[in-house]
């Protein structure tokens, strides 16, 4: 992203500010009709993409906006302005009946080409190439052989689907960006400038700083708190890792382990309620359910994910006899407790979501609470200028999300128009031979591969459009199917060979990116297992009876501990190969959906743990 100064900075500042005002207004007084809301949103975002992201990342291009980007920014606005001015005509036309006019055809082509270029700049080549291929498939897919052969469509029919309907570029993914995501990003901007983001870090330090391996536990807690607000693994790594990684290295963790802890903890922020990033809002929109349903379903897997990381971090510290931070390095506990009211905006947000308010209204009220809380603090008081800065700081981050959603809309539109999604379902059934577990495994691979070059939101949209229909047809519940795809879109950020969160953490720790990725995958093992578990056991998503949910959570927690200890290979001494293997089997069994296997797994984990503890000196058992 360009770092602009002078009048160029002020121009982009003004555009983002106007966009923020528009979305705050619609959040308070009601959004426009879907197509119009999304088009206005995209018309703000496209010129910002040209002004903030250079054609090539040369030093000069990162400091100034060349004339051709100003021209492209103006051109990118024209399709949107036309659609807004002619909205009545577009909204009343009959798809595949009314003729696409020449201006609509030309402007639709311009919008598509402009979108592919800004996708390349902002998100990267992989998503831009995928978008181009699916657009080309609508035009030329009928030339392909076998089951890949598509129907023949004319250029006006393709442009109509992409530009003049709400099933292409202006589809549900962009709709989520134009409503929920932008408001929550602005909310995040207010939290950061009000000092509440820093306060979350202080809470994490007070809670875990003095414990064994305290800095690593600070990373786990703070990344969970910060990550649920940022919605981006890489942004989370840079936001908290610059503080936590050097601390971890200082007390004795290796650079690889320090980087991997931050990478895996930061990635998990996107699955931690109440704010789970853009993809979680898209899940709610795809399913047509209140956002709180997604939030509640995601809670137990997210807690188990962080619990497992905490266990492995703790026993790594025990093994290496790593101590916590010194007393003088910790913030004053009473001072932190006296400011506990600073968590009020997040508590208000959670309450409003749970009682049924819309996410947009809940976010706006939480912003107002944040402003009120900041007033007594001179250094973080949100005056008029600070409030404008908060809107811009949050709004600036929407560009990546909106562009990813819009380009993914090309793919979704292509799947809808050509029926390729049905062919994919057929292919999935053929490859998996109707075996549900094998189908899950294949879709897991697809999600990870897609996610290697895409942001979480884009990877989730593409994988869900292809994989979710197949999983639902196999009998899995829609909520579980979407969360399954969501988890593996996130896991791709820590899965080598392309693990973006791990690479970001390695750039801070100085470790090998590949080694950091492999270690992060090991620390984040729960994210590879739990999606399979909750597909078969509704208790993990709190969808079973109260008794079943409790049994699933308790035994699942024990199993997660067993798996963490087996992977770490240490309890109070080094575990032998057979002890690790048996404990791992026991941990996996607790995740099975049947009670006999769950209790066998529980017994195995407990017996191995007690067996290892029996020779441990009694006097040290409080350590």
From TrEMBL:
InterPro entries: DctM, TRAP_DctM-Dct_fused. Signal peptide: none annotated. Keywords: Membrane, Transmembrane, Transmembrane helix. The keyword Repressor does not apply. The keyword Membrane applies. The chain crosses the membrane at residues 12-29, 35-55, 67-85, 100-116, 123-142, 170-193, 295-315, 336-354, 360-377, 398-422, 434-452, 484-505, 517-534, 546-567, 588-612. It comes from the Bacteria. Residues 111-542 form the TRAP C4-dicarboxylate transport system permease DctM subunit domain. NCBIfam families: TRAP_fused. This is TRAP transporter, 4TM/12TM fusion protein.
């Amino acid at each position: 992203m360009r770092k602009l100064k002078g009048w160029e900075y002020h121009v982009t500042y003004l555009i983002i500010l106007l966009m923020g005002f528009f979305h705050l207004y619609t959040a308070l007084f009601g959004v426009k009709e879907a197509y119009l809301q999304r088009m206005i949103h995209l018309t703000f975002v496209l010129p910002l993409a040209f002004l903030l992201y250079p054609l090539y990342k040369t030093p000069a291009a990162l400091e100034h906006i060349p004339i051709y980007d100003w021209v492209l920014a103006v051109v990118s606005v024209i399709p949107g302005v036309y659609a807004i001015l002619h909205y009545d005509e577009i909204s009343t036309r009959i798809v595949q009946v009314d003729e696409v006019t020449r201006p609509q055809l030309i402007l639709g082509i311009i919008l598509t080409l402009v979108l592919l270029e800004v996708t390349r700049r902002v998100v990267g080549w992989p998503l831009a190439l995928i978008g181009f291929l699916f657009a080309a498939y609508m035009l030329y897919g009928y030339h392909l052989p076998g089951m890949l052969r598509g129907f023949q469509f004319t250029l006006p029919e393709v442009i109509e689907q992409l530009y003049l309907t709400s099933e292409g570029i202006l589809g549900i993914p962009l709709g989520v960006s134009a409503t929920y995501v932008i408001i929550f990003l602005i909310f995040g901007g207010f939290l950061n400038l009000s000092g509440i983001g820093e306060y979350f870090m202080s809470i994490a330090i007070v809670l875990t700083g003095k414990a064994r391996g305290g800095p690593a536990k600070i990373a786990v807690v703070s990344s969970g708190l910060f990550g649920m607000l940022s919605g981006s693994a890489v942004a989370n790594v840079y936001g908290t890792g610059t503080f936590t990684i050097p601390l971890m290295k200082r007390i004795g963790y290796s650079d690889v382990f320090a980087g991997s802890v931050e990478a895996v903890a930061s990635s998990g922020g996107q699955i931690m309620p109440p704010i789970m990033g853009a993809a979680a809002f898209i899940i709610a929109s795809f399913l047509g359910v209140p956002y709180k349903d997604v939030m509640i379903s995601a809670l137990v897997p997210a807690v188990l994910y962080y619990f497992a990381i905490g266990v492995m971090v703790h026993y790594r510290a025990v093994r290496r006899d790593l101590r916590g931070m010194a007393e003088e390095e910790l913030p004053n506990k009473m001072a932190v407790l006296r400011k506990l009211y600073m968590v009020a905006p997040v508590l208000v947000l959670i309450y409003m979501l749970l009682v049924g308010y819309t996410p947009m209204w809940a976010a706006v009220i939480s912003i107002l609470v944040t402003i009120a809380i900041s007033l007594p603090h001179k250094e973080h008081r949100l005056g008029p200028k600070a409030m404008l800065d908060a809107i811009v700081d949050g709004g600036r981050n929407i560009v990546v999300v909106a562009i990813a959603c819009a380009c993914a809309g090309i793919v979704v539109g292509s799947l809808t128009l050509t029926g390729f999604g049905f062919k994919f379902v057929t292919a999935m059934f053929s490859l998996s031979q109707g075996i549900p577990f094998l189908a899950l495994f294949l879709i897991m691979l697809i999600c990870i591969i897609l996610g290697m070059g895409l942001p979480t939101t884009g990877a989730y949209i593409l994988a869900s459009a292809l994989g979710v229909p197949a999983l639902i047809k196999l009998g899995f519940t829609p909520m579980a199917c979407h969360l399954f795809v969501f988890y593996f879109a996130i896991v791709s950020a820590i899965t080598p060979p392309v693990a973006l969160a791990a690479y970001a953490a390695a750039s801070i720790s100085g470790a090998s990116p590949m080694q950091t990725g492999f270690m992060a995958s090991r620390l984040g093992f729960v994210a590879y297992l739990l999606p399979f578990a909750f597909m078969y056991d509704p208790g993990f998503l709190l969808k079973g009876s109260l008794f079943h949910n409790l049994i699933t959570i308790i035994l699942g927690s024990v199993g997660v501990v067993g798996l963490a200890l087996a992977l770490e290979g240490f309890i109070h001494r080094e575990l032998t190969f057979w002890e690790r293997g048996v404990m791992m089997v026991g941990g996996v069994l607790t995740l099975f959906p049947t009670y006999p296997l769950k209790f066998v797994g529980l017994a195995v984990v407990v017996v191995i743990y007690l067996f290892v503890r029996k020779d441990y000196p009694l006097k040290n058992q409080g350590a």
